[in-house]
Amino acid sequence: MHPHIEALYNSAQKPSRLIIGLMSGTSLDGLDVALCKITGAGLHTQIEVLKFTTVEYNDEYKTKIKQVFAKRECDLEVLTLLHPWVGKLHGAMVNQCLALWQVNPADIDVIASHGQTIYHCPQSQHNHHDFKNGTLQIGDSDQIAVTTGITTVGDFRQKHIAAGGEGAPLAVYGDYLFFASPNENRILLNMGGIANLTFLPKNGDTGAVFSSDIGPGNTIMDAYVQHYFKGLHYDEGAKLAKAGKVNTKLLTALTDNAFFKLPLPKTTGPEVFNLAYLREAQMHSTTQRLNHEDVLATLNALSATTIAKALNDCAQHTQDCVVYASGGGIHNPLLMEQLLMHCPNIKAFKNTESLGVNPDAKEAVLFAILANECLAGQRQSLNNNNQGILDITMGKVSFAD
Ligand SMILES: Nc1ncnc2c1ncn2[C@@H]1O[C@H](COP(=O)(O)OP(=O)(O)OP(=O)(O)O)[C@@H](O)[C@H]1O
Ligand SMILES: CC(=O)N[C@H]1[C@@H]2OC[C@@H](O2)[C@@H](O)[C@@H]1O[C@H](C)C(=O)O
Question: Could you say which residues bind ATP here (predicted)?
Fold first, then answer.
């Protein structure tokens, strides 16, 4: 047997594994690195997040990625070069974390790497009738494995696409294993660049587990701030949006988008929710002359109202639904305030900290769970494949040499 296969076989049989989950989201703020001790697998999964950090990206990374990010046209040479470059950088960032944490790389079973999403195009979003769903993440896991010397599981979304899904949201797989409760109806809400949710009914009815993207979380607000306020990455504390007034004409034009009319489940990204979409809505509503603060207040309201609608729809047939939020949007006080105001029927709003997972670490932990399932799990049947949740094992394995 090849020694790497033997090592994987041994890891798969251990009662618990050390797995480093890596997530680089659409906000391009940094690489989330979560060192997790995962005990068991499947419905017996237990997780301890031993360390978590976000290694911030410098301007060079952001500029390089933005050459291709969510763009229909780009320089293929740059894209090809970025794939190994991002992988090597992520590997170096893991090495940096391990050194800082004084953790021996030899003690890590595997790294679980999401990579950097460059383009996401479900069928609902493109006009190529001869193609189905597609999504592309770069940051080659071979580079991570070679740079760290640690076996790396990566490229999780392609199996979902291969099995007929849209490649997202994958959160449901981890949410179901780790956050489902026999006593409480739960909605796990992540508000990153794009917002998504997972509904977990308390009765253990796997057929009712549900997951979908909702629409913009922070992505358009971030893009707007980065474009008009040089040097700022986002509207910290919603200071700018709080100084503005919601413009209802613009809000109506923004809400009048084909994505919001699609039935759930569905997925999207900054390919749709970007400054061009905002400009078009401003033209339709003749609100091109609004000041920046009013635009940001309106974008904030767009996220809050569309997320609230998805939560209310989800909770409509369910009493006592508790929302557990995660992602950078929870740090936006205006977004949270508006969300609470629009969701009077939600029993309580908490964040995933109260379930033992740092809300900023949740997506990195998710990929650690998916890698753990790839090694030691069994496929879960959630709802007979009729709601976009497929019975699959995800991830491709890269060895260090
Ligand atoms: N203090 C804060 N005030 C306002 N907004 C904040 C604050 N902290 C974080 N954010 C928002 O959260 C964003 C980062 O969120 P997060 O890291 O969850 O996104 P992501 O993981 O890149 O996205 P996705 O999950 O869509 O891939 C920031 O770009 C910003 O918009
Ligand atoms: C293609 C892609 O990278 N999608 C991300 C993005 O960020 C949030 C939302 O859009 C979600 O669908 C997904 O990530 C999470 C981790 C998921 O798959 O559950």
Answer: 25-32
Q: What is the C-alpha to C-alpha distance for residues 173 and 170, in angstroms, rounded to an integer?
A: 6
Q: Whose CA is nearest to atom 7 of ligand 2?
A: 194
247, HSE (Cβ side, Cα atoms, 13 Å): 21
Q: Is pLDDT of 258 > 90? A: yes
Q: Which atom of ligand 2 is found nearest the CA of 268? A: 10
Which domains does the chain possess?
Answer: 3-170+361-398 (3.30.420.40), 177-355 (3.30.420.40)
pLDDT tens-digit series, residues 223-257: 999 999 999 999 999 999 999 999 999 999 999 99
213 C-alpha to ligand 1 centroid (Å): 16
Given this model, what pLDDT does residue 297 score?
A: 98
Question: What ipTM is given for this predicted complex?
Answer: 0.97
**CA 272, CA 120: separation in Å to the nearest integer?**
10
Residue 331 Cα to ligand 1 midpoint, Å, equals 8
The response to whether residue 32 sits with its C-beta less than 6 Å from ligand 2 reads: no
pTM of the entire predicted model? 0.96
